[in-house]
What we know:
Oligomer: single chain
Strand order of the largest sheet: 4-12-11-10-7-5-6
Helix content: 25-40%
Order of helices and strands: EEEHHHEHEHHEHEEEHEEEHHEEHEEEH
Number of helices: 12
Amino acid sequence: MTISAAPHLLPVFARADLGFERGEGCWLIATNGERYLDFTSGVAVNALGHAHPALVRALQEQATKLWHMSNLFQSPDGEKLAARLCSESFADFVFFCNSGAEALEGVIKLVRHHHFSKGYPERYRIITFEGAFHGRTLATLAATGSAKYLEGFGPPMEGFDQVPHGDIEAVKKAIGPQTAGILIEPIQGEGGVRSSTPAFLKALRQLCDEKGLLLAFDEVQTGMGRTGDLFAHRRTGVTPDVMSLAKALGGGFPIGAVLATAGAAAGMGPGSHGSTFGGNPLAISAANAVLDVMLKPGFFDHVQRMSLLLKQKLASVIDRHPEIVSEVRGEGLLIGIKAVVPSGDLVAALRNEKLLTVSAGDNVVRFLPPLVVTEAEIEDGVARLERACTALAGNKRAVS
Length: 400
C-alpha cells in the first residue's frame, strides 16, 4: 500500500515548514541537520530542556516496569508525587490528569461542587478576566471568554462572568448570589505576558474570604519554576484554594494536576471526578524526576539569574531598535517583548536566525527558554534577536 504524501493531520495549526528529529538541552536539530536555539520550550513545557539525562533515565526505567494501570488501584509513586507537591504548596489533595485544559476542567468542577456539597447548588458562576487563556475544551473556552476562540462552536458554556484584568471594582460588581469563585492566572501568558500585581491578587483573596468564594489560580504556564520559584503564587504572598498545573510538570511528558485544600475539595468523593490515563506510571515517573532536579539547592537561583540577564539584554536591544520592539514584560523565564512590527513578522525573522519563539496576545513575542539555559545561550539568543531586528529595520526602510 502506498501512503499519500498529502498532509493528513487536521489543519488546526498554522505549522511552520520546519520539522525536528531530536533535541539536546536548549537546542532542537531539524530534519536537515540545522540547529535551532529553542526559546519556546514547547510553550513552557520542556523546563529541563530536551533529553535531560534524569528524565531519560526515569522514563527508561519505568518503561520496563509498568506503563498503565487503572486508578481503581493504589499508586505508590503517585502518592509520593502528590505528597511532594502538597509539601511545597498550600494543598492537601492532588488530582492527576493529562493536560492543562483537563486540569482547568477539574478546577471548574471542584469550585462548583464545593458549594453544591455545602447545600448551595445555585452558586456555580466563576469570575474570570479579559485576556485570559484557560484551554481549548468547551468549558475552558467559556472561561477564557475570547470571541476568536469561541466562534463557530455554538453557545458558550454558561456560568462565567468576565471582567477587565486588574479592575477590583469590576470584580466587586460582578459578585452575586450565584458566584462560586474567581479564576485567574498570576501572569497571563497567552494573553501577552501580563502580570497581576500582588496588591490585586491580595484584594481578590480578601474578597473571596469575605464572600465565601474559592480563589483558583491557573498555574499551567507559570507553575513548575517558570517564574523563578516552583509556583508563581509563592512570589506574591497570596495563597489560592485550588490551582491547576500542567506543561512543565512532566518536563515534556503529558501530565496535569489539580491541587486543592481539604476545605475546597470537600464533597469530592468517589465518582465525582475521574480520568482514565491521569497519573499513569510513566507520567508520574517523569514528574518525580522533574521535581528531583528542580528542588536541588540553587536551581531557582539559576532561573532568577538567567531571567535578570535576559531582561537586561533584551532592554538593550529595545534601546537600539525602538522601531521594531518596545517593551520587556514578565518574570523568571516567562519573558515577553512587545513588538512594534507585527509579532508574527518578528517570530518569522527570529526563525530565520535559527531562534525559536512564540507569539502571544497584545502583539507580544514570548521568550521561554528551558530553565537550564546557560549564560552563553542567552547571549547567543539575544545576538540572533539583534540580527533579526536589523533585518526587519532594513525591510521597513526599503518599503518606506
